[in-house]
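Comment thread on ticket #2218

A.B. wrote:
> Attaching the input chain for the structure job we discussed in standup.
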Amino acid sequence: MNLHNPSIPLAGASNFRDLGGYQGKDGRRLRLRRLFRSDHLAQLSAADIEQLQALQVGRTVDFRGEHERLAQAYTLPEVTQHALSIEPTVVQRAKDMQARGQTLTPEGAAALMEQTYRDFVLNNSPRFAQLFALLLEDDQPLVFHCTAGKDRTGLAAALILRALGVAPDVVMHDYLLTNQLYRRPALPHSEAPEAVLRVIWQVQPSFLEAALQTIDETHGGLAPYLHQALGLGPAELRRLESLYLA
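C.D. wrote:
> Ran it. Output below, let me know if you need it in another format.
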């Protein structure tokens, strides 16, 4: 694959990138500076905020849960925030397991991640439908994010890219870029072993594949899922293409 580098370096966010440039349907490429994915935006510097203003970002979609948003809130000048909460978080699930006395192994952490992705499809598809409804309103530049910008955001990015006709291997490439770009936060001492934390704070192909397999099992494929669960029929897909493909 001959792919561009979508990363946009910011001091206060490590996983901020432009979805533009990938080749989509009919060989058309996603328009630059329209769709951005990121980790949370609560630690942006003044220079970072100026960068977002230069990119003309006017909307953010925040997949974090209520507690996450309160703990790391942000406001951006002339930017409309849309809260589309997806809970519980993987971290909360891991903490709940520890509280029940269960020891989390790397294999168990991977299984937990895969189940979380299945639950995104089973329980949170209405949130992704809301995201697409916003995308269909107009093409005002938009950033969608969660806390690390890797799981909830990663599936959202995959759905957008696939809906616009981007090849599956390129979608996986974009998904796995998190492992190169994301900087784990410095956290207080954790009882979890480092090997477990690496699984939770990174991404693996099997995580995204668990969501896509669940889509196949529950809807018979991506196209029916986009239509039935996310409201993207032929007319909506044509509008999405007209807005975001060049």
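A.B. wrote:
> Thanks. Noting for the ticket: DSSP finds eleven helices and five strands in the chain.
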